[in-house]
Amino acid sequence: MNKLEVWASIDLMNSKVVRLKRGDPNSMKIYSDDPIAIAKKWMNLGVDGLHIVDLDAVLGKGDNQLIITSIIKSVKIPIQVGGGIRDFNHANKLLKEGVYRVVLSTLAFKNPFELKSLLKEYGDERVMVALDYKDNIVMINGWRVSTNTSLESALKRFKDGGVKLFLLTSIDRDGELCGPDFNTFELIKGIKDVGIFASGGIRSLNDIIKLKDLGVRGVILGKAIYEGIINLKKVISISKGV
Description:
This protein has eleven helices and twelve strands. It has a single domain, classed as TIM Barrel (Alpha-Beta Barrel).
């Protein structure tokens, strides 16, 4: 039985831990003004890693780099960072500072040469491509710009280019607690030699079991754990097959 990786999401805006619905800044809800305490909380509950999203960088309104650096120094589990990583130098800086993995979206589509350079420099376990999609079309630039590329086409193209890890997020389900997009995960489960991470809409232990059965490598949990809707300890037990 495959082990499912469980990652807790920490979305940062104005140095606070927040959640948005469908990426809309106007829907922001603040959960904590102490991101380091939140990072330690999830670590102590046994998650496999932290998925940090710098929403200010996504929106072009500054960044939370100092907070991210502090979190890196404060926890002993892997951290992957996404949001507003637009060039090789930014990604390289994060990886040099101790981030385990960078999560790339706009850069992957707009500068495939830099994506290839990062893969060559760090290997396919430390570079992930985020495919955020709406109506099966991948969106970039903070979900505001269409790539006119279907999810399946993007997956195959990046896989052929050496990418192994993918984060799939259904934009319409993000922050809505309406269940994952199982149909999509069912459709792509036959793609070999890739690691798929699921995000968006996860709300119950049954969702976790179903995603595990579909062969995804990991889940990113956000609103469901911040609202206490899903028991993180039970999720981790399921993930390990206990």
